[in-house]
Amino acid sequence: MDAVLVIGRILFALIFVTSGIAHFAKLEAMTGYAQYKKLPAAKLGVLISGLFFLLGGIYIAAGFWVDLGALLLAITLILAAVIFHNFWKETDPTTKQNEMIAFNKDIALAGASLILFALIAWGTLTEFGPSIGNLAFFNF
What we know:
Layout: H1 2-25, H2 27-36, H3 42-62, H4 66-84, H5 93-122, H6 125-128
Subcellular location: Membrane
Transmembrane segments: 6-24, 44-62, 68-87, 107-125
Pfam family, one: DoxX
């Protein structure tokens, strides 16, 4: 089971590590998009979000400070969803749908990050909440 958790952590973190790198590699383009979305101090916002994505992803993948990494990701994802994917302001149906998809993706990933944070910060899954059983097919 430990191997599955390590693989899961790495797969989950990969999108954030690559996104963090992209924030720095494509700084000017991402700053332009942030300015278009009227983010104050756009370049600083891109740098900070890139750093949070990169560190959060590395911490989770490496297995140290996983709770901090998950919290960094959750904060960044919630802010990105609200600031950049505010579908409720769009009038064009296609743009509105695309922004809603991006908003929902960010919120879902933030939720997964918060679950990971809670599991690490407060203990085991059984302490996390009620359970209806486990996924074991064979009990020996």
